[in-house]
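Progress narrative, work stream C.
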Amino acid sequence: MSSLTDLYDEYAFLDPDDRYRMLIDLGRALEPMPEPLKTDATLVRGCSASVWVYPTVRDDGRLHFLADSNAAITKGIIALVLSAVQDRSPAAIRATDITAELAPFDLRNQLSSNRTQGIPNMIALIRQTAERYA
């Protein structure tokens, strides 16, 4: 998974249509989430599209998230969020201001409010998971 800095370097030079395509491509590149993990327990509340996030813990204690959505753009947003936290320790995730990390992408002004309304809930779920495992 690319770093957010690398992704932003590419994103910043794109026009709005190409930014949508980039988000869709990022979503397509997400690690597949097995269908049995897409349950009510892994569903992120408050998203206009269905979003599922399932945390796993690596042998070294780092958190790895599987995630999916039924909407292509939303899946790309998930990929951006995960780029800020994927395979990091719970303490590192807790210390990361994910919202600030995503701020350069200016998603609220680039996408409709329906597309971005669930981002705070995704971030909260990831932070709660990090808290549990810290």
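Work stream C, second folded protein:
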Amino acid sequence: MNPAGPLTAARALVELVRAPAALTVLGDTLAGAAASGRPPAPGRTVRLAAASTCLYWAGMALNDYADRHEDAEERPHRPVPSGRISPRAALGTAAALTGAGLTAAASAGRDTLAVAVPLAATVWAYDLALKHTPYGPATMAAARGLDVLMGAGARRARHACAPAALLAGHTYAITAVSRRETLGAGAALPAGALAATGAVALLAAALTPRATGRARRAASTALLGGYALAAGSAQLTATVRPDPTRLKRAVGAGIHAMIPLQAALTARGGSARAAFSLLAAYPLARALSRKVSPT
């Protein structure tokens, strides 16, 4: 048996779902749980991470299924247009991962599943109907916000609205840029994303409760600074020269910057140890992005 066959198929699947980029969603539910006051529970944390990861991967596979004709012209190297994965297999992968994500969410409790179901519906609506409409960035932002709320659960979701809104706002900005990453854009687009990054960082700092301990506030502030630097430097470069290469880098940097933002929001919610554990995923995500593009 030729080992190249299975290895090639595995590589194509990894590219289809942007496997390493799942590191950028693990902190969503941590931030939501911390904001809601839920005590850390390893079993629930693992189930939530599995649910977020599977639904994220499902969205990536569904994205490539839905964009297969466009990608044949703009991104022919992707698994579907290159013929390494069939459209039917991509759609089946998305469906299977959605089922796995909902199962993982259900295992964490009914109130978790109550958020996971609309999250999954939002993912499918985005990729199959809304992505190329004016509502695309808002739909993607809603999916990210729901992922944060899933960490809190339906009964405590109101307590996690602030981190959900902040991560949704960041997502909106990078999604708007991603729509032009293969074509180029005017400077106003990455400049708007840069302004959004600054606004998210400032709002997150302002929303930190005054009763928060000094050490926790310092940790959250430092992490927010890291977030602003991680996303903002690439956005500034793209503003100066908004060609496809720099826009793509700004999108990739924005995706990875989710991690320090999630860590800052998790620390703000009272889980500083979890926040700094989460931060360890940042260099790993960046390193793996050189092997598999997150966009």
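The CA atoms of residues 102 and 172 lie 24 Å apart. No further action is required on this item.
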